[in-house]
Write a structure and sequence with these properties.
The structure holds two protein chains of two kinds. By secondary structure, chain A is mostly helical. Chain A is 72% helix and 0% strand. Chain A is flat, with a radius of gyration of 25 Å. Chain B is 77% helix and 0% strand. The chains are: A mainly alpha, B mainly alpha.
């Protein structure tokens, strides 16, 4: 009996010694792999990124080229009256819709990722400063954050685009630069609040205190301890931030304010095709469906990451 | 409580100030003078001789600092000037032309959202981790994620074009159906999530266990203890949700061609009608900020712990 138990214990020990140490990240990955919706989201985003990066090779036509011999508004190949050269048909200027959708993926991803990167940079800096320094600095910065946070962002985007859209700055990269700036100006506050909260909880933890007491410089504590330990909620917030910006671009372009034609974006394609809805509804539904799928993919991934990185949050 | 309320109300002032200042600065840096915009809005046929008179009328001959002060004072009194495109019509008159449509759609959508969202959330919470819960949670996620204008175009294509049940262009009461349903779906998803979370929290409370322990029938426990307490947060968000819906109609009104405030807003952007653009922006901001303030105040009344932080 005791011998058997000892043997069992020995086997367990050997197993434990062989098992890889499981950290937060490998644990999270294990949990994420079980979430089918999140995996589908990852697959979709990877495919979209591939299409966006290799748009030049994948697009069958030049998205801005107006062929002399093609008709306008020809339907996709599965409908009657299609032109075989254009799989998803042509728009009102006879441009190839498939190629324009492919290039639109590029706009959507860029408009999702760049403002989030800017907001991360600005928001994390302010958040760390505010949380670490505390006192008067914290008070001042957080009041600013409160005011900007209360500013209705869609209205801000609409006013900025309508006022500055026709300036040289507003026209840079077909209006992308203005969107980056406008999105980052309103977006950084969410990140600043989040990072500040993280810093405040970490600041008084024993391991930070230990690092400080042995004389590790502040900068090193922040880079080695504070930032790595705040990464999980930041990643989740970023994953939910990206679709927010993709939607904002689509909505603004739909209103005629975001990406300037002739550049193709899903939003301005919805705008263009919305007038054709009684003629052939399939036109407007193509870019609209892509917007919806992209939003869903990022949301499923965000939900999955939140559950995977923070098991306590679940339920 | 009075101190908390006063503090919260005073904190909206910097927000209004910031919005007013940002819109003022943006008008200043917009290329071309207001006269150019006015002239362009009227087809560019106006005689330059009219310019000094017109600028004096609108106070544009004064120094910028003076204009800024006037702008703040006038904004506080909801006087945003006259529209460039509609001669003799003030901005507030123009806003009020569209407001009834936006308000009606907002109210109907909220009622619909509550009718769908609350029962869905309650059922999901009471049958936690069953198929019913998963299905309604999935619906809530999708409904909250897919943009309302995308749902709008799908509905318009199906019910408007394919089935021809509702007119595509704005004609009669039938045109209210789709915008109300589309906005209602998004909000009902949000309400369902909130209801589910709130009810789940209540079911774990000690007083619910006590109620069961003293032998009350399950029906009474649910109706009197769980629902009554669990629905408080849901009721409190109705006000701000309405504010969000009325402003959230900006895009939806354009999809369905509703002649509401949002539609006029986008029209005025196309026409470079700056007084209307800025006036409508401030009007919308007023709604949103007021809505947010109300939710903070009601939470403060219901949950004294919030006041402390």
């Amino acid at each position: 009996m005791t011998v058997a138990k000892t043997e069992q214990l020995g086997a367990l020990r050997a197993e434990a010694a062989q098992a890889k140490p499981r950290g937060l990240w490998s644990d999270a990955w294990r949990r994420l792999k079980k979430n089918k919706a999140a995996l589908a989201g990852v697959a979709y985003i990877a495919l979209l990124a591939f299409i966006a990066i290799f748009a030049g090779l994948l697009a069958p036509h030049d998205p801005d080229f107006i062929p002399a011999d093609a008709l306008a508004n020809t339907p996709p190949v599965w409908q009657e009256g299609a032109d075989r050269r254009f799989l998803l048909g042509t728009d009102s200027l006879s441009r190839d819709i498939l190629s324009r959708l492919i290039y639109g993926a590029r706009i959507s991803l860029v408009v999702g990722f760049i403002p989030v990167a800017l907001e991360l940079l600005l928001g994390a800096t302010v958040g760390i400063m505010s949380g670490w320094l505390g006192g008067r600095w914290d008070n001042l910065l957080m009041r600013l954050v409160d005011v900007v946070y209360a500013f209705p962002s869609l209205l801000f985007f609409i006013v900025v685009s309508s006022a500055l859209g026709s300036t040289p700055f507003g026209r840079m990269l077909s209006g992308l630069v203005l969107l980056f700036v406008a999105f980052a100006i309103t977006g950084w506050v969410t990140m600043a609040r989040l990072v500040r909260g993280q810093v405040l909880t970490l600041k008084n933890k024993e391991f930070i205190e230990a690092a400080r007491s042995v004389g590790v410089p502040t900068q090193r504590i922040i880079w080695r301890h504070v930032i790595p330990n705040s990464l999980a909620p930041i990643i989740v917030s970023v994953t939910f931030g990206i679709p927010g910006y993709i939607l904002a671009e689509a909505a603004l372009s739909y209103l005629g304010l975001g990406i300037h034609p002739p550049a193709a974006s899903w939003g301005n394609m919805v705008r263009e095709f919305s007038t054709l809805i009684s003629l052939n509804a399939v036109f407007v539904l193509m870019p609209a469906a892509l917007i919806a799928l992209t939003m869903l993919a990022f949301t499923f991934l965000g939900d999955g990451l939140r559950d995977a990185l923070d098991p306590q949050m679940t339920k | 409580m009075a101190r908390f309320a006063l503090n919260r109300i005073l904190w909206t002032l910097p927000v209004f100030w910031l919005v007013i200042t940002v819109t003022f600065v943006l008008i200043q840096v917009t290329p071309g003078s207001p006269w150019d915009a006015f002239n362009a809005a009227n087809g560019g046929r106006l005689s330059p001789d009219l310019r000094p008179t017109w600028e004096r009328q609108h106070g544009l001959d004064k120094p910028v600092a003076q204009q800024y002060v006037n702008y703040i004072v006038n904004s506080a009194r909801f006087q945003f000037g006259e529209s460039y495109t509609q001669q003799g019509q003030t901005v507030i008159e123009r806003i009020m032309e569209g407001f009834p449509y936006s308000a009606r759609i907002g109210v109907y959508a909220l009622v619909l959202a509550a009718i769908i969202g609350v029962p869905l959330g309650v059922i999901a919470a009471l049958k936690q981790n069953t198929m019913v819960d998963y299905v309604s949670l999935f619906f809530a996620t999708v409904g909250a994620t897919v943009p309302s204008f995308v749902i709008g175009f799908f509905m318009l294509a199906f019910f408007g074009v394919r089935l021809n049940w509702v007119p595509i262009l704005w004609t009669d009461w039938r045109n209210y159906i789709l915008p109300v349903v589309v906005l209602g779906i998004g909000t009902s998803a949000f309400i369902a999530r909130l209801t589910r979370a709130s009810i789940l929290e209540i079911t774990r409370q000690d007083y619910v266990r006590t109620a069961r322990a003293k032998g009350l029938p399950e029906r009474t426990v649910t109706m009197r203890h769980i629902l009554r307490n669990g629905l408080i947060p849901v009721v409190t968000i109705m006000g701000p949700a309405l504010a969000a819906l009325i402003t959230g109609t900006i895009i939806i009104e354009n999809v369905f061609g509703v002649p509401g405030m949002g539609y006029l807003y986008i029209q005025s952007i196309g026409a470079r009608d700056y007084p209307v653009i800025m006036g409508t922006t401030l009007f919308y901001t007023f709604f949103i900020v007021l809505g947010n303030m109300l939710v903070d105040l009601t939470y403060g009344v219901l949950d004294p712990r919030i006041k402390a932080s």
